[in-house]
Amino acid sequence: MPRIPSLAAAAATLAVAALALTGCGTTTVDGAGNNTVAASSQDCSADTTATSTDAVSMTDGVGRTVELEKPAQRIAVLEWQQIEDALTLCVAPVAVSDSAGYSTYVSAETIPEGVADIGTRGEPDLDTLYGANPDLIIVEAFSADDELITTLEKRGVPVLATLGANGADQIGNMKNVFSMIAEATGRTERAEQVLGSFDAYLSDAKAKVQAANMPTSSFLFFDGWIEGGNVVVRPYGKGALFTELGEELGMTAAWTDEIDKSYGSGGVDPAYGLGMTDIEGLTAVGEANLFYSNDDTADSYVKELTKNPIWSALPAVKEDRAYAFPAGVWGAGGPLSCQQAIDAFVNAILQG
């Protein structure tokens, strides 16, 4: 997950919005660093887009200048969205952070065998990282003085920092991150093709939702976890990626808490649009349709949620308008993860 308080606790701590859908296949790439455009069993095997060999001079997500004599081929990637993005661009990383966590929560792309695991996303094992001989390290940050950037820059390998999130335009930021990685690796033509497909996918899905003539367009997506024996609910408010996707499909966000920089004190955080409440707090959305993460772990919050009489009394639950996303769709991912989320929304609405 992104390294901020609202999402930063590792997968073992939070039941995150990392949910999957079988309708979207994955793009697989072969061994780490063998070739910028690697073979695959699906999209990459048929990819005909060009890879640039020109020198790269670009401004990254936090305003730093990144210059490369040629596009990077041996990239190390320290965040899950960016790992997914690289693989969608048909670029196999030589090293990634927390590959086990990624494989648990992100299904849009599969990390190929032979990629070095460099430990946690916030504190990578530097010996393993540099032992993979990367020519570019891709991180996530919110400012140029991020401590991780400062640490990595001391070793002389170029660092590309992508903006962690943008509560004012999450979909736009998702696209910008994807395009930035493409520019650094010479894969801009591939990125344009993928993003064009994403826009068409979203447009087609919106038409399906409109044709469904839902009883109410109001909706809330949430996930949660167990803390101290109690269910903690994390509603996705204005500025959350899944909320933006739902709005693009023609629905109306039901969680109306204001942005509050002190996340967890009643508002939603400004970067990710996420709030915090309990099961009773869900009564605030009234008649809204409910969508929620459904993790498969032994201590899943869903098991406790569905036992609660407050949950059972919610209008959406009583009227069968509460829809569990299937497990595996990553809630902070790239174009393919977003397409999985779009599918999950649409399938729930049409089957409901």
UniProtKB/TrEMBL annotation:
Q: Tell me the InterPro entries matching this sequence.
A: ABC_transptr_periplasmic_BD (IPR002491), Bact_iron-sidero_bind (IPR051313)
A GO term from the CC aspect: outer membrane-bounded periplasmic space
Mind telling me which CDD domains this protein's record contains? FhuD
One GO biological process term: iron coordination entity transport
Q: Name one Pfam family in it.
A: Peripla_BP_2
Q: What residue range is the signal peptide? A: 1-20
Q: Where is the Fe/B12 periplasmic-binding domain?
A: 74-352
Q: Which UniProt keywords apply?
A: Signal, Transport
Gene3D superfamilies recorded: Nitrogenase molybdenum iron protein domain (3.40.50.1980)
Primary location group: other
Q: Where in the cell is it found?
A: Cell envelope
Question: What protein family does this chain belong to?
Answer: Belongs to the bacterial solute-binding protein 8 family.
> Mind telling me what this protein is named?
Fe3+-hydroxamate ABC transporter
Instruction: List the source organism.
Output: Arthrobacter psychrolactophilus
